[in-house]
Every structure is written in C-alpha cells, then in structure tokens.
Write a structure and sequence with these properties.
The chain has 52 residues and is an alpha+beta fold. It has one domain. The protein is built from 1 helix and 2 strands; from the N terminus they run ββα. A two-stranded antiparallel sheet has the order 1-2. A hairpin with a 2-residue loop joins strand 1 and strand 2. It is globular.
Length: 52
C-alpha cells in the first residue's frame, strides 16, 4: 500500500478544487506548498509502479 504525504490536505484554508484540480493558495505556508510538491512526486511514482 502506498502512503502519500498529505499534510497540505488537512486544512482547507490553504487549498481548493478548481475544475477537478487541486489549487494551493499563494498565501499558504511554505510547509504546505512543500508537502503538496512531495505528494505530487509520490503520486507520480506510485502511478508508474502501479500501486495507486
């Protein structure tokens, strides 16, 4: 099972969904932005491995 970093998803004040895509707000803390970037990398790798 793949466990994806999801610190960014815990607080909806920092993101919203637009046209089916997640958008991180510009005023979100640096940690949230970094966590989202890690999530995207992990998600891409999991898709390539076939575990997501």
């Amino acid at each position: 099972m793949t466990r994806l970093d999801s610190l960014w998803s815990k607080d909806r004040r920092y993101w919203h969904v637009e046209n089916g895509d997640i958008v991180i707000h510009n005023d979100a803390p640096k940690e949230v932005k970094e966590s989202y970037e890690r999530y995207l990398k992990q998600k891409e790798a999991a898709i390539k491995r076939g575990t997501l």
